[in-house]
Structures are given as C-alpha cells and as structure tokens.
Amino acid sequence: MIRVFGYLAWCTAYNRTARQLRHLRSPRYVAALLFGIAYLWFMVVAQRPAPAAGELADTRWVELVGAIALLGAVAWGWIFGVERRVLTFTPAEVTFLFSGPVSRRGLIQFKLLHSQLFILFNAFLWTLILSRERFGVSPWLRVISIWVLLTTLSFHRLGASFVRTSLAEHGRLGLRHRVVSLVVLGGVLIAWTWSIAEALPHLADRSGDSPFAFLPALGEAGGQPLPAALTYPFRVMIRPLIANSVAAWANALWPALTLLVLHYIWVVRSDTAFEEAAAAVSLQKAQSLSGRAGRTNTSLAPARVTPPLLRLAPQGWPAGAILWKNLVAVTRTRRLRKAALALLGGGAIVAMLSFEPEGMLAEIAGWFAITWAAAMGVIGPQWVRNDLRGDLMKLDLLRSYPLRGWSVVIAEATASALLLTVIQLSLLLIAYLAFLGNDFMVPALRDRSLLLLAAFAFLPGVNLLGMLIQNGAALLYPAWVRLGSGRPGGVEALGQNLLMMVMFVALLLALLLLPVALGGGTFLLLRTALNYWAALPATVLTLATMAFEAALVVEWLGGVFERTDPATAGIGN
Amino acid sequence: MIEVEGLHKLYGDFPAVQGLSFRVGAGEVLGLIGPNGAGKTTTIRSIAGIIIPSGGQIRIAGHDLAKDPVGAKTELAFIPDEPHLFEYLTVEEHLRFVGRLYGVTGISARIPGLLEEMDLGDKRGALPGELSRGMKQKLAIACGLLHEPKALLLDEPLTGLDPVGIRRMKSTIMRRAAGGTAVILSSHLLHLVEEICTRLLVLQHGRVVAFGTMAEIIASRPGLRTRSLEDVFLALIGQEEATDA
To answer: How far apart are CA A518 and CA A520, in angstroms?
Structure first.
C-alpha cells in the first residue's frame, strides 16, 4: 500500500509543480519569480552583515527562549486544537481511499507523509532565513534539525487536537481512549503550576530590574529540577539547531529523533484506536436507529442563523451588496457580538482600574492591547481574508454580475479593511482607557487623545492600501496565492508566512512613502505659521494622497479583474 | 435579443469555439447540444461575460458585451450546472443580495412568490449548507430569475433536480419564453431539449454542425432515418454506429 501512496504523492507533487511552472509562460509570473529570488537573496544573504568568525550567539539563551516559544506553540495546540487540518482529506481522497481496501492507520500515515513536503519546504525557508546566524553547524545539518523540530511540533499539535476532539465529540468513550494522554497532560499541568508558584515570588522581585538582571533570574528558575524536567523535551528539540560542532549535533539529534518517533507512534496509535472505536459506536447507533420508522433526514436540520447586524438597503450602489455580503459572513463566522460585549466590559474595568494607585493590571492590559494593535497592522492583512481571496473561487459568479471590475475590487478590499480597522481601533481604545487615570504616563493624556484621533483618521486608509496589496497579489497571481478563507497555518508554515509578511510590509511602506512625505512636509512648512494647527492641512493632504493612490491601484486592479479569464487563470469552474 | 457573430475562443493553440454565429429572438428557446468538449460551455460562458472571447461580437438586448458589459449583463442571467452560492448568506439574503446587484425594485414583494415557485418557501432562513443539492440548484435558478432577465442562459439546469423539480423547471423556462425572454439551454438530456426548444444548435469540435428547427435539420439531411432527436444527434456527430450496436 505504501507504494500506492508514494505513487499518488509523487504524481500529485510532480503535476502540481509542473502546472505552477507552466504559468511562467506569462511574463507577469516570470517577473514575480525574479522578484522573489532577488527578494530572498536580499533578505537572507546580502542584507545581513556576517558576524565575525568565532562569534556565537549565546546558546544558553537561544535554548531557553526557544524552549519557551515551543512551549507556547504546544500550549496553543492544546487550547485551540487547530492541527487536524493535516488530516483533512480531499473529496477525491475520500472517494478513492475511504471506499478502498485501506486501513485507517494507512490513511493517517499517508496524510502525515503528504504533509512532509510542506514541512520540508518550510525547513528549507527557515534555513535560508537563519543562514547568517552564527549558531549551529552547516546549513545542511540545520535543515535536518529544523525538519525534526517542525515535524515533532506538528505531530504534537495533531495529537493534542485528537484528544480535544475525542473529548468534545465522544464523551465517555473518548475519555476512555485518551486516558494515558490525559493523565500525562494532567501531571504536566500540575507540575507547571507548582513550578510557577515556586518561581513567581523570586521573579517578581527581579521584574523591576533591567532585562540583563531578569534573564539570569529566569534562567535560574528554569534550571531548578522540576522546571528543567518539564522543559527538557523542548530543549531537546532546540539543541540540534544550536549545536556548534558535528559531534555535538549528532549527540543532540538522536534524543530529538527519539521524541519525534514517540510522537509519531502516539499520533498513529491514538487516532487509529479512536477512529475505530468511534466507528464501532457509530455502527451500533445506526443499527439501533434503523428500526425506527418515519425519521427525517437529520443532516438537513436547520441551524440557528444569526440575523445580520446591518440590513441591505434594496437600492443603492450595486457593489455595496458585495461589501454587505462579506461583512455578514464575518458576523456568522466570528462571535462578534460576544467580542463587542467583552470589549465594552473590559474597557470599563481597565478604565476604572487605571485610577487605582497600584494600577499595574490596567497598565499591563494597556501595553498588551497596544502591542496587539500594532501586530495586527502587520499580520492582520494575512488573517482577515473576507475579500477577493475568498471570493476568487467563485470568479464565474462575480464575472457574471453587472459590475465594473473596479467596483468589485473596492467593495471586496473595503470589507477586510473595515474589519481590520475596527479590531485595531478597539484595541487602541482599550489601551487608551487602560491609561486613562495614569498621570505618569508619557505621552500625556492630551497627546494620547490626539494619537487616538490620528489612528481613527489614518488607519482606515492604511488598511485599505494593505488590503489592496493582498487582493492585488491574489488577482495577479491566482495560481500562486492561496485562495479561499484559510491560509497556510501552523508552526510549519511560519517560515513562508514570515517571508510573505516582510514583503507585504515593504510594499505597504513604499505606498505610504509619498503620503507621509507630503503630509510631513506640509506640517513642517506650516508649523511656524499655524503651530499645531498645521497638523490639520497635513492630515488632509496625507489622506488625499492615500485616497489618490488607492484610486489608482483600484482602477488598475479593476482592469486586471475584467481581463482575468477564469479558464486560463486556473480558478473558478 | 441574443446575437453572436463570429465567436472564436482559443485556449493556447486549441480552438474551443470557431466562428460561431447565431441569433436568438425574444420568446425563442435555443437548445445547445453536442458531445463532451464540443464547446457548449465555452459558448454559454462567453455569452455570459465570464470568458473573454478571442474574437467575434456578442450583443445582449442591443448591448455590446465588450463595449457595455454592465448594460449587457444587467439584461441576462446565467445559471450554471453547479450552483455557486455564498456559504454565509441565507436563501432570502441571497435574493436580496442579487436584487441589490441588479437594482430590482419591490424586492420584498417579489421574494415570496419566487420562493413558492421554486418550492423553497419554508427554507428562506436556511444557509446553503443546510440545503440539498436540488434545493441549492433551485436557489441558483431563483437568483437568476429575480431580475426578470431578457436573456436566460442555462447550462445543464436540471442537474440534481427531482422529477417534480424538473417538471417545474420546464414550465418555468417555457413560461419565461412565452413572456418574451430569449433562452439558451445547454443540456445532454435530449428529450428535454426536444420538448421545450424551438430551435437547435448542434456543436462539434467548436463548430456548428446543424442549426435550425428539428424539422429543418431533418429536412436538410435526407439520409437521416428516424425522427428522434437522439438518432439525429448521433448521426450529425458521426456516431450512428452507436445506435446500431
């Protein structure tokens, strides 16, 4: 059977690559490829100064920080259980493999094998990204180290999601089949809680010191027997990456490989046991139900549909319907009402706490909100995708509507830009409230209020430009950009997401250069005459320039939309 | 109402449609038939403005599709074989969405009648994920008919419909045609084509093999032995032996 799977994986990968390469007959794709190669070269080779020979990163800290990062990734998997997408089968695989003489374990092995192509690609990217760092041995050995790390992490998150799913869907039966995993998890949780409670007073004492004093305290806490034992698996995964000789690398690799094999066994065995037991129960249930007459098709039972937040006016700008549709989709896929309530409640609480003399909690919440608002400016356009990236799969339908291309593009991009802006402004508002009663905060309250106003003025435009870049990439390169609501996720996709993000930020900054230069120049010119009121004409000019740029980009992308042939672009039906 | 002149479509070097010209007047139902790969879907999607033709001219209700795409598309409806629906819009919201796109007036009054006609009256609050394949197809058809198009393009419209749905669909098509809509219907169901189409266009390898009423086509080919559309079709595409086998 493994040969059949190998054949399928090879043919699929070969034909997919060949299909992608065929697009290079288009000059647009050739230009993108050349740009990509130049970008990679600039990013990973030319840009960074080579450290002096013998200069090594402090591997102690790399190991500690790496272990903490891995711990976060693992915890995320346990909390959100997102890794089951690895086992998502295509309709063709369901048709041919599920009905064929293939065991469940065989199917899982096939999917795990299949996911290796993606992990290998990202391991290669990470090797490029880290190429100039002076820790670790040769790049070839580093590829292996990164592959081991990413695969182990992927397996762990997959196993965690199995445990979560079986508990959520199969109750007591799932509990029985997950008893070993749950006992181990429970033990680890108790041990972690114990360790943190032990270390917290010591760390709190040092928290006011500089980072140079805090880090050794953290290292010391992490070196205690229990925390050291708990972080051991994570350190094991990091060590091959930072080994500075071939012998050290070989010594560090075998424990990491052992951990990988253990994870593989855990995933394969646990899922098989779970699936087969669940299948047996499903069969019993089906048999007991088959005797009951007059049953309706429960699979078509209606679900509760949230009424839309906004009603669509029957008349108006036609493309407004697309904007409305995308916003309705968001309200039905995200719990916006609950989020809004949580935001209001949270805002009120932090505002009250900020007037407390020891308003540490409000301050922490404030900085957390600011950090996330800033981070959303960079990662948000990849996350929020209720636009052309989702709708291009239905290009046939979009093309049959009586709309000009530019109006489709602006409606689609605006939907995502609006959502992202609302998220960022909400976070900034929380931050503003969190520092409301803080008299020691710099900048002062008046300046913070002005900054918040500036965010209200500029963020919609900045986000619109950002979304136009993302939508433009999907429209210009539909064969190379991932379409649909999902995006490549998980730690194994971190490398390519990071590269895409840096490229996006560079393009956005290029688009913002002219508006910022004109606005800044106007402010400097008029400041002597108008004092701070010079900010008003500067703001207007900046916004007008951004609007002008957006209009140019929309017009151009609208033309691209109208010229895109679904049959030759490889999208739609 | 629908005028096609010298339509060409090339995929690379492969000619999918070659020099196609025809006209469908108000109230006519044109049956587009041909073997797989004959160019039926390419033709119908070119007329719908989805595919960009390599050459030729298409006019819908007097609007040139290339020069005035919005005007032309406002007058037509395209209903594909595979219903494309938005995952997070309910049945009623789909109709409101399409109504806004096409500037339909009095939408609230029109929705109940249309849903009843399509037998979706009790599904107005359902998401597409809760509908069966046939119901999705009915919703796609309802969306197409909402703005009373002057030109109706149907690509295998009966796929997934039950016998009652098929009968309703047939009467819907005939009623629209009687009301002055120009209809192009692509289908492999020859008995359906024979029953409701006023003229036939037979395509093979992207070229017209025959065009006219059933009687005209038979009259132009004295060699045709029977009067069943299936036999005529097989004879036209050179697969007569398939009937003898």
So the answer is: 6
Q: Does A559 touch chain B (CB under 8 A)?
A: no
Average pLDDT for B68-91: 90
The secondary structure of residue A271, as a DSSP letter, is: H
Are B97 and A321 in contact (CB < 8 Å)?
yes
Question: Longest C-alpha distance within chain B, in Å?
Answer: 57
CB under 8 Å to A34, separation ≥6 — which residues?
A: none
Residue B140 lies in a domain: yes
B93 touches chain A (CB under 8 A): yes
How many domains does chain B contain in total?
A: 2
Is there a single domain that holds both residue B106 and residue B204?
no
Residue A568: closest CA among chain B residues belongs to which residue? B11
Search chain A and give the residue with CA nearest B75: A402
User: Do residues B37 and B43 touch, judged by C-beta distance below 8 A?
Assistant: no
Q: Residue holding tokens 């913002």? A: A512
Beta-carbon neighbour count of residue A187 at 10 Å?
11
Does residue A562 sit at the B interface (CB-CB below 8 Å)?
yes
Please tell me whether the peptide bond between A27 and the residue prior to it is cis, using omega within 30 degrees of 0. Answer: no
What does the pLDDT look like over B93-147, one tens digit per residue?
A: 999 999 999 989 889 899 998 998 888 989 988 998 888 888 998 999 999 999 9
Residue (of B26, B54, B52) closest to A572 by Cα position: B52
Could you tell me if B40 and B159 lie in one domain? yes
Q: Which residues contact A137 (CB under 8 A, 6 or more apart)?
A: A243, A244, A245, A246, A249
Question: Which A positions 42-71 lie with beta carbon below 8 A of chain B?
Answer: none
- Residue B59 forms beta bridges with which residues? B3, B64
Using alpha carbons, list the distances in angstroms from residue A495 to A46, A124, A130, A240, A488. Answer: 19, 9, 10, 18, 10
If asked whether residues B98 and B163 sit together in one domain, one would say no
State yes or no: pLDDT of A71 exceeds 90: no
* Residue A204, phi then psi, degrees to nearest 5: -60, -35
Instruction: State pLDDT tens for residues A302-334.
Output: 456 777 778 888 889 999 999 999 998 888 876
CATH number of domain containing B166: 3.40.50.300
The helix-helix angle for A211-222 and A179-206 (nearest 10°) equals: 140
Report yes or no: B101 at the A interface, CB cutoff 8 Å: yes
* Structural domain range at position B211: 1-75+150-245
B81 falls within a domain: no
What DSSP designation does A301 have? P
d(CA A136, CA A245): 7
Per-residue tokens: A532: 């701070």
Judge contact between B206 and B15, C-beta under 8 A: yes
Q: What CA dihedral angle connects A50, A51, A56 and A62, to 10 degrees?
A: -70
Helices (H) and strands (E) in chain B, counts: 10, 10
Whether the per-residue pLDDT at A569 is higher than 90: the answer is no
Q: How far apart, in whole angstroms, are the C-alpha atoms of residue B28 and residue A375? A: 59
pLDDT at position A97 is 72
| The Cα angle at residue B238 between residues B233 and B242, in degrees rounded to 5 | 80
Do A230 and A239 form a contact (C-beta atoms < 8 A)?
A: no
Partner B contacted by A301 (CB < 8 A)? yes
Q: With beta carbons less than 8 A apart as the criterion, state whether B197 and B31 touch.
A: yes
Strands B63-64 and B76-79: unpaired
Rounded to two decimals, what is the model's pTM?
A: 0.76
∠ Cα B111 B116 B121 (to 5°): 80
Determine contact: A567 vs chain B, CB below 8 A.
Answer: yes
Answer yes or no: are the C-beta atoms of B157 and B185 closer than 8 Å: yes
CB A331 within 8 A of CB B117: no
Of A406, A404, A397, A384, which is closest to residue A326 (Cα–Cα)?
A384
Q: Do A400 and B51 touch (CB under 8 A)?
A: no
As a whole number of angstroms, the distance between CA A388 and CA B60 comes to 28
Q: Are the CB atoms for A409 and A557 separated by under 8 Å?
A: yes
